[in-house]
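Changelog note: in this version the structure field was regenerated for every chain. One regenerated record is shown below for reference.
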Amino acid sequence: MALDYFAEVTEQMLPAAEPNEKFFRLLLAGAGLFANCRRERCVAGRRLLFTVGGFRLSGWLPELHVCLSCGSLLDDPEADAPSARFSAATGRA
């Protein structure tokens, strides 16, 4: 079922008939990870890694080190105090 999930995600994330070597390597690596994976928790973790990797390669993964509203760094080394929280709902620290 996990490999079927990989196929569905790939079909949705990539344009039809577009070769994408990086995504192909992600598919091969993802499929290879299941060789020693016997428990559902292990399979779920592999699916999550594949999904995040697919988002990153497709350009859909948001920048999580900056505020989505103002663009300031969330962990600015020059700030007096580092930001301690991040709200995915608002995109603000």
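Spot check on this record: The chain has a mean pLDDT of 80. Residues 2-58 form one domain.
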